[in-house]
Structure prediction request, 365 residues.
Amino acid sequence: MIGIRVSMRLPERMNLDTKQALTLVAGECLRRMHRRIDEGIDVHGVEFAPYTESYAKWKRDHGREPGSAGDWLRYTGEMLRAHGIVSLTKRAFVIGFTGARNAIVAWANNRLRPFVGLPPEEKLAAIKVARDFLLSTWKANMQRR
Amino acid sequence: MSDQFNLARLDKTIRLLRVDLSAAGYDSAIQDQLAGIEEIKDAILAESGKLNLPEEFSAESESMLSMLAQGAEEELLTVANAAAGAVAQALRRAAVGGLKLTDLILSIAATLDIYEGQAKTLVTTTLHSLHSSVRVKHFTDAGVEWFLYAGPDDDVTREWCSHFVGTRVTPAILEEHASEWGREGKTPLRPVTSWRGGWNCRHELIPLLGKGGYREGPGK
Prediction:
């Protein structure tokens, strides 16, 4: 399977729905991955290998702007649309691709331009953002009581 | 036997082709499409339990699915009729131009390939639109309010999409503008979270925590 798995344990005293919390963390991971893809940066922080001249020409001939924001790894957009949560439990989630065809296309793309995954610091940052968001939600809930 | 058509044989052939198209190929494509949607529906309902989604979501998704199925069926019928029409047109051209039978068969095959491609696109788009809705609903149920309208902004981007690309939106904002900038075609493509700009839309909705530092859409 091609994808990333993130696990997280929240303090029980916060009395938060862990699946809800993990959904939010997954959302933040997705946002970070897509932003990086749009910027043309791979999972190691290196610029994507440029498209071959012939492929870039073919894309241009079909109205695309190769290498522009939002163009990387997209032609029909089907593969990146299929990118999302494929598994979720109380402790962990997996972000992957729905549909075997999309998973295969993603695997092939990932060989050329590694885009699946988050560098450790990004993963921690995603968890921190989600934790802060949850903390503020929890505080707001406490104040309402 | 002559390898050229005459007008007398043409009408008969058209009638036969119309019958053949609906009986052999395209009706079964419609049935396959409906069976595929049924299968996906079962998978989504099973998945909704695993994802701890509220029960009302299952009911809602069922009604959404039946709407999708109905829309897809109508569209496929349109595709099948258009295919029949195009074949008839090819036959008429052949009769007038004295095209050889072998060339005519190749021409019809090419025409049908195009429509087969359209039918496949329809199936793929329908299923992906369902995934999009499930994803958005899943995140909104978890408390996400804003989504980034992500994807390209190039020469083939629909005007409607170019108003939203790179901005943060809510499903309500998208619905509010659903009929603007040339989006509303012959099919009421709702909900917008399913179809975004329309058939084969290349854009997607990425969940944001808070406002994510993006400006609010539409942006142009």
